[in-house]
Amino acid sequence: MNKLRYSPDALNDLDEIWAYIHKELQNPSAAQKTVAEILDSTERLRTFSEMGPLLSSIMEVESDYRFLASGNYIVFYRIEGAFVSVDRILYGRPDFIRVLFHALPED
What we know:
Layout: E1 3-6, H1 8-24, H2 28-43, E2 66-70, E3 73-80, E4 83-91, H3 96-101
Parallel strand pairs: 1-4
Antiparallel strand pairs: 2-3, 3-4
C-alpha cells in the first residue's frame, strides 16, 4: 500500500474548492460532499496508484503526471516510489494545463 502526500498547492486547492462552494455558491453541504468525494477518490490511490492515466497519453506534454477525475475536478499526481504525491486538484476547465505548469500568469 502506498502513502499519500499532498503538496501545499493541493491542500490550498481543497481549501479554495470548499470556500468557493460554501461561500460563493452558498451551499455548505455541497462543499463538504465535494471535498469528501475528492478525498475518497485520492484515498483509492493508496492501493491502485496507477489507476489514473498518464497525462502524456491525452496530450503532447513530457510529464510523469497522472490524473484522476473526481466530479468536476481533476486530481494531478505522481508516483514516487512508495509515495503517491498529489500535486494539484483543479477544476476540469480547459486551462488546467496552464495552471498546472504555470505556463501563463493567472488572471
